[in-house]
Amino acid sequence: MKLMDGPYILAALCNGVMYGGGFKINPDSQVNDGLLELVYVQTMPMHKILAVLYKFFAGNHEDLEELDNVICDEVVYASKDGSPMILNCDEEVYQLSTFTCQVRKHAYKRII
Q: Is the N-terminal amide bond of 7 cis, ω within 30° of 0?
């Protein structure tokens, strides 16, 4: 499946609820279900961005018309021309022309 061409103001790949220290990108997620949620938001006028950020912090962003999301088990990002893309993964910045991500079902075990 190929996604709509960008640009995006936000593109996040998650298997947990929180992203970036407070954004509830994927409020209904289960970290061990083997599924990823790709969330992306198309560009929008500056005057709407603050309200959109608030919705993401609250986890109430499902009704945004600029938002699209895809549930999947693997994602491959690839630049069209082979040039490096800037990616952030767990607060580390990478420059890669291709990035692949997948989550294994029930691989995470929580011990309390």
A: yes
